[in-house]
Design brief:
This protein is an alpha/beta fold. The protein has one domain: SGNH hydrolase (Rossmann fold). The protein is 38% helix and 13% strand. Helix 4 packs across helix 10 and helix 8 runs parallel beside helix 9. The protein is globular, with a radius of gyration of 21 Å. It starts with a helix and ends with a helix. InterPro entries: SEST-like (IPR037460), SGNH_hydro (IPR013830), SGNH_hydro_sf (IPR036514).
Length: 331
């Protein structure tokens, strides 16, 4: 049993003689699916979570400077995969930065403006804009001179400095989410690899070496997120708290369908012809509907499999998740 093996959870969760949570105790041990679906679902994050690039946008979000939330985005697919007791609050927004989420806590329309203790699942994909991924990609593509591949990899120090700074931002973000939904499973969704695992040729002005470096950068950031998640979840266990923080590795989600493939699941270069000149569309290098389906399948797999430990929720909180209460806590 978990208590017998670790001796860390026992003090917080009353157990019977068999080492199982006491049926009359304060906490419920739930299956992974039960732990994710007894309440509401909040979907947070940036354009890779909002579905920018996947089309079929919710009309009110498909405006200049809007969030570009797609009906094909993985949060919509996750919400449809299981019978949630509550509803989806889809707040992920194109262009969102983690530090901006913290700066706008409690403000109307902000991603952290809610208080919803009867939330059973939160997904969050964040950090790409904090690292300046879009600027990095543009710099790699628009080089002067054109064949100067060093203009791409020369950004490495700046990126790693931003990654280091994001560590604290991420820690604070998870703390804020857990304040709002302490019994929830919080699934942190990483970023997919956009280019072939072993690039062999150029894509527009992106050389094979630049593509490989961009892949490595995404993988490095995912590794940072995964380790931060491990630390966060270990702290939950050690403190005998409910809920969880889990990482969803989607690095290989587009495997065989990357940019330049015969059947890509990610948008390549998309151009906008503006009065001021031609520029890259914001959906460039974002997963399309098929890409979100692939990411969504991995998120659902994590929901169904769960972490390598039991999952608990507060008995009274789960019992209080009535339809009326759940409806009142949606955004």
């Amino acid at each position: 049993m978990w208590c017998e093996a670790t001796q860390s959870w026992c003090t917080g969760v009353p157990v019977d003689s068999g080492g199982r949570p006491d049926s009359d105790g304060e906490y419920l041990e739930l299956s992974p699916v039960e732990a994710a679906t007894w309440g509401n679902y909040y979907a947070l994050g940036d354009s890779y979570s909002s579905g920018d690039g996947a089309h079929d946008y919710h009309p009110e979000t498909a405006v200049s400077g809007g969030c570009w939330r797609s009906a094909n985005a993985y949060p919509e697919l996750v919400a449809a995969a299981h019978d949630f007791a509550g509803q989806l609050s889809f707040l992920a927004c194109s262009g969102q930065r983690g530090h901006a989420m913290l700066d706008t806590v409690g403000e109307d329309g902000a991603q952290l403006s809610w208080e919803a203790p009867h939330t059973s699942l939160v997904t969050i994909g964040i950090g790409g804009n904090d690292l300046g991924f879009s600027t990095v990609l543009k710099t790699c593509m628009v080089r002067v001179p054109l064949l100067d591949s060093g203009a791409c990899t020369g950004q490495e120090d700046d990126i790693f400095n931003r990654m280091e700074k994001f560590e604290k931002t991420f820690e604070e973000l998870i703390a804020r989410v857990r304040e709002r939904a302490p019994d929830a499973r919080v699934l942190v969704v990483g970023y997919p690899r956009l280019f072939p695992e072993e690039p062999t040729g150029s894509y527009y002005t992106l050389t094979a070496s630049s593509q490989a470096w961009l892949n490595e950068t995404v993988q490095e950031f995912n590794g940072q997120l995964e380790e931060a998640v491990r630390v966060q979840d270990s702290a939950i266990v050690e403190a005998d708290m409910v809920g969880s923080v889990e990482f969803v590795d989607v690095y290989h989600a587009l495997d065989g369908h990357e940019i330049g493939a015969e059947d890509p699941w990610v948008n390549g270069v998309l151009l906008r012809d503006l009065a001021t000149g031609v520029t890259l569309d914001r959906s460039t290098f974002h997963p399309d509907a098929d890409g979100h389906r692939a990411v969504g399948e991995l998120v659902v797999d994590q929901i169904e499999t769960g972490p390598d430990r039991p999952l608990y929720a507060t008995r009274d909180v789960v019992a209080g998740a009535t339809p009326e209460v759940l409806a009142s806590e949606t955004a």
